[in-house]
Amino acid sequence: DLAHISEAGFWSAVEVHDPSLPLIVTHTGVDGVWPHWRNLSDAQVRAVADSGGCIGVMMQESFLGKRPTSAATVVDHLAHIIEVGGEGAPALGSDYDGMVTPPPDLPRHAQWPRLVEEMARRGWRDERIAAVLGGNALRVIEAIGRCVVWVDEIEKALAGATDGGADGGVSKDALGAILSWMQERTSEAFI
């Protein structure tokens, strides 16, 4: 996830990332709508889109525009991502963690139908709206989920784990439980 990284760090990550996997920026805005040090430039949007990845627009007013922002402001960011990176790139990345100041008309997920209303008002097709509401993010998460690194890393940790104890080490039982949980809840392609 490239959401909390400087532009220089972003490009370093792009340079070394596995090109068979899509990039993802889970929560940000775009400079083409509102310049902010954490928002993505058009070149960054293209890089994510070119990898088959997606960009989640967050609900933090300072990332979105001059206050007060609104559902329309969020859709402005989504529309810019589509203009620059195509329909497979935009997603919603709310970041409703209690620390953000969302647009007044979007204080919680329950108000997201306002986003759908705004997209429909702009003439967006149902397929585009569905992609933004979750289709794009799910596609990217599924592609990343096929990566065997997680299972390999847990198996390596399990092999070198202690039995826990006073030193605070992670027990083999705990790591084994995590690995079992992941294997039970993922497709065979994951493993």
Structural class: mainly alpha
Number of β-strand runs: 3
Average predicted local confidence, pLDDT: 85
Rg calc: 19 Å
Helix content: 40-55%
The tally of helices reads 8
Molecular shape: globular
Largest sheet: 3 strands, parallel
**SSE order, one letter for each helix or strand:** HEHEHHEHHHH
- Placed side by side, the strands forming the largest sheet appear as 1-2-3
Low-confidence stretches: 186-191
Residue fraction in strands = 5-15%
Q: What is the end-to-end distance?
A: 21 Å
What does it look like?
The structure is a single chain. It contains eight helices and three strands; from the N terminus they run αβαβααβαααα. The chain has helices at residues 7-16, 42-50, 61-64, 71-85, 113-121, 126-145, 149-160, 172-185, and strands spanning 24-28, 54-57, 90-92. A three-stranded parallel beta sheet has the order 1-2-3.
Name some characteristics of this structure.
single chain; 191 residues; mainly alpha; three-stranded parallel β-sheet; 8 helices; 49% helix; disordered C terminus
Describe the structure concisely for a colleague.
The chain is mainly alpha-helical.
